[in-house]
Amino acid sequence: MLGLWHTVVATPLMKLKIQFKVTKKASYSLDIATEPLAIPIQIDSLTVEGNRLRGLAKAFWRPGEDIVVDLAYDEDRLYGELRMPGLGSLPIEAARGRGPALSESLAEQVKPYRKDSVAKRSNEEIREAVETLLDRMSLEEKIGQMFQVPASNFSFGNAVETDPPEKLIAEGRAGSVLGAFDVSRVFELQKIAVEESPHRIPLLFNADIIHGAQTIFPIPLAWSCSWDMDAIKEACAIAAKEASASGTVYNHGPMIDVSRDPRWGRVSEGAGEDPYLGGLIAKAQVEGFQGDSLLEPETIVACLKHFIGYGAAEGGRDYNTVDISEATLRNVYLPPFQAGLQAGAGSVMNAFNIYQGVPVAASKALMKDLLRDELGFDGILISDYGAVDEIVVHGLVEDVKEAAKLAVDATMDIEMATRSFEHLSQLVREGKISEAQINDAARRILTLKYRLGLMDDPFRYVRPEKETEYHFHEEHLKASRELAQKSIVLLKNDGVLPMADYGDGNGNSNKNGNGSGGRVALIGPFADSRDLLGPWQFSRFGHETATLYEGLRDKGISEERLLYAKGCGVNTTIEGGIAEALEQAKQADVVLLALGESSDMSGEAASRMSIELPEAQMRLAEAVVALGKSVVLVLTNGRPLVLDWFERNVNAIVETWFLGSQAGHAIADVLVGDYNPSGKLTMSFPAHTGQIPVYYNHFRTGRPLTEANRQQKYISQYLDGPNEPLYPFGYGLSYTRFEYSDLKLDRNRLAAGEELRVSITVSNAGSADGEEVVQLYIQDCHGSIVRPVKELKGFSKLRLAKGESKEVEFRIVAEDLTFWMPGVGYTAEPGKFVVFVGPNSRDVQSAEFSFG
After folding, report:
1. Which of 46, 398, 496, 534 has the smallest set of CB atoms within 10 Å of its CB?
2. In Å, how far are 465, 506, 649, 745, 816 from 755, measured between CA atoms?
């Protein structure tokens, strides 16, 4: 029974390839992967009796319903049934091995439809072609381009009442398709568009490629902790390469919302709490996805989302109200969008929230006046899923016809999933909107299709032969592992890490060890779990994710010395689980406690009131810690968690996030010391949920808390805990020790047009080579409006050998002091400033200068 099995079954929706991977360490485990649609299946319970295997998993698309696995096996086959809500009972007759890709037979079929090359058209040539086509199109045909339809009847929200996509496309009532992850489905629908629809206009195929297509990289919150723009750009370029091979041309990403509330599940998709760093990462992602030219078939359109303020949802509850000032909008939430637009992003998606009482999807002030007119965006503005219909639900208008009018007045080009825009032709006839507005939207859509080369070669992205070559490629996995290493943040270490003495399986140590070859107890629901990919991924290779157990085993820790017990589920107890875990832990020299969140606990629609670890895991942790062993907490999660108890009770804390396809290997690299951790937090970790939101770049109050007044009463502080986070923005430890000294400014006054040079010496005073992110912050001490206590304005990644010192230099110009204020706009005001430099936002050295 052990090993990899495959079968192909016919379902009511599609032909489905299913792979079963059966492994056994201390007990049996089963992983299931599906193709072409990667259906997340996490087995919650598994029993093996004789030659029979039974398992249960939750169906995320049908809450309260289970996926049931009932299989038997003999030497050459695995057989039985798989019951899936919505698909029914699927008969299973599986053979050994991965089996052929479903799209394999498509390669020859599509060849006659493709062209060898597409000549680049100039902007003028594209403009002329678009105008010629518009002149031939009826009003209804132009409106048809403004609809994005789902590739199937699967919904990510409320069910949408609409005709099948095949009918909509053939009649010219769709210009783009969402979620056609199957390249065969892309080919099928594109053929309908170019052979049956009016004017034979090809479709755009859109998907959410957030942190990888088939090779999965760390979630964006994790990779932001690398502070490595080149590595992030490479990850996005690889994702584009893999996605475009499957027909995707238009990404619904990156998400560049600034996030200050870890209760919001979508913090996992963004770059954290800082607008400056968020802007740099937005730029890197756009450049990675779009490459040098959208005409290149291995690039995809980047769509900046969600414009704007979505990260400020009240209470951290998804889709909730946002109520912020214009100054906060422009100084905090807008900079990443400005950076992404300057990088050339081809699309922007609206946010679900309201701003100043108006849903963003209907906000002419935000989308036309700010985005289009002020920021100069002339690309595609697409609604988020169902957002046009939701203008009615918000209570702004009475019906979807009026909602459609407001969206078009706000220059919305594409309505995703819903059909409110079917009222547009009547609105034109009634004179409530103009045909020129429709022309503008259709013109932008058609222009993009020409820029992508689709109008000249509609099937250029249908490349099943490239799927086989690119998906899960060895070089892509290597890049994923390297970025995963850089994304890990060491939060605490009393010397127990690295585990240099837990050798190669022969009693020998790793290169830094002394050869004691001790025993390691690996305990917890993530000790041998493949649920390490995180939310918003659709990989068909999830069953090949490297687990932490596998990563440590491959480091040479023999199974005799790698003691394993699950202990509990993510949210549930296991009968006898804690007792088994304690039995293993008692035999060990060090305990690795692998705890965290499951992938469905983060991401969209995954807000949490409490960001502590679930009760079942806390009980396991308390029991293990009570043994008095050295304990290392290894976290898998998609948001900052409250770790106060662990900070006080364990020896080391390793924040690994959801690291992707090579997670287990990357974590093991860090634990044994083959990679010295260098990650730095991009979101503050609260000491208590009651502090939220807590972030480093806050304003001073009129009664600020200081060391001198800490015992006074009428001060801005909590009675029952600190103001400060447990771990601040920019924080992260290393296996070596860095010292900062000799902060210097080359002048104490900066004038417009000049630059001020800041230098500091950083020394590696520890016993290992390492990398440090040196961070520069600035405070504007007095302004026409109050400014934050400090703001990140620069950083430098520095590699130092043990004993080595280097001088790091930063340059400050007037632009670094600029901010937006009401009635004035963007300005840098004269006055006193403080510059801070250090390893994080808290532990800094400072010096003063003046501007003006």
Report:
1. 398
2. 53, 59, 48, 11, 10
Q: 94 is written with which tokens?
A: 């599986």
Please tell me the distance from the alpha carbon of residue 111 to that of residue 462, in angstroms, as a whole number: 9
Cis peptide before 100 (omega within 30 of 0): no
- Per the CB < 8 A criterion, the answer to whether 615 and 449 are in contact is no
Q: Which two tokens stand for residue 145?
A: 């381009």
The tokens of 640 are what? Answer: 């900052």
Over 60: is that where the pLDDT of 341 sits? yes
Strand, helix or coil for residue 481 = helix
- Cα separation, 535 vs 637, in Å, equals 10
Q: What is the pLDDT of residues 164-203, one digit of tens each?
A: 999 999 999 999 999 998 999 999 999 999 999 999 999 9
Q: In a 3-state reduction of DSSP, which class is residue 112? A: helix
Cα–Cα distance between 753 and 814 in angstroms, integer? 7
DSSP assignment string, 214-266: SSBPPPHHHHHTTT-HHHHHHHHHHHHHHHHHBT--EE---B------TTSGG
Interacting residues of 90 by C-beta distance below 8 A, sequence separation 6+: 9, 11, 16, 18, 81, 82, 83, 84
Is residue 301 within 8 Å of 346, Cβ to Cβ? yes
The phi, psi pair for 756, rounded to 5°, reads -110, 130
103 CB-side CA count, 13 A: 26
Average per-residue pLDDT in the chain? Answer: 95
| Best CA proximity match to 684, nearest among 398, 300, 260 | 260
Q: How far apart are the first and last CA of the chain?
A: 75
Q: Using CA atoms, how far apart are residues 208 and 269, in angstroms rounded to an integer?
A: 11
Tokens read off for 784: 């026409």
Q: Which structure tokens are listed for 666?
A: 């990357």
Rounded to 5°, angle at Cα 341 from 337 and 343 = 120
Q: How far apart are CA 3 and CA 75, in angstroms?
A: 11
Between CA 443 and CA 492 the distance in angstroms is 55
Tokens coding 163: 């005709």
Handedness of CA 139, 145, 150, 156 (dihedral sign): negative
> How far is the C-alpha of 628 from the C-alpha of 668, rounded, in Å?
23
The single-letter code of the amino acid at 552 is L
Q: Do 549 and 524 meet the contact criterion of CB atoms below 8 Å apart?
A: no
Is residue 384 annotated as part of the catalytic site, yes or no? Answer: yes
What is the per-residue pLDDT for 40? Answer: 83
655 has a pLDDT exceeding 80: yes
According to DSSP, residue 727 is labeled B
pLDDT in tens, 705-742: 999 999 999 999 999 999 999 999 999 999 999 999 99
How would you class 716 by CB atoms within 10 Å of its CB: exposed for 0-12, middle for 13-18, buried for 19 or more?
Answer: exposed
**How far apart (Å, rounded) are the C-alpha atoms in residues 842 and 852?**
28
Per-residue confidence (pLDDT) for residue 517, from 0 to 100: 66
Crossing angle of helices 474-487/663-671, nearest 10°?
50
From CA 8, how far away is CA 28, in angstroms rounded?
24
How far is Cα 346 from Cα 344, in angstroms, rounded to an integer?
6
Beta strands in 429-506 (DSSP E): 489-493
Q: Quick one: CA torsion of 175, 180, 186, 190, rounded to 10 degrees? A: -20
Rounded CA-CA distance 82/94 in Å is 12
Please tell me the distance from the alpha carbon of residue 229 to that of residue 207, in angstroms, as a whole number: 23
What is the token pair recorded at 442? 């259709």
Q: In this structure, what DSSP letter does residue 431 have?
A: T
Give Dmax (Cα) for the chain. 84
- What CA–CA distance (Å, rounded) separates 121 from 129? 10
For helices 275-290 and 335-342, give the axis angle rounded to 10 degrees: 30
Q: How confident is the model at residue 102 (pLDDT cuts 50, 70, 90)?
A: confident
Active-site residue (options: 384, 389, 600, 669)? 384
Sequence-separated (6 or more) residues with CB below 8 Å from residue 831: 780, 781, 782, 783, 850, 851, 852
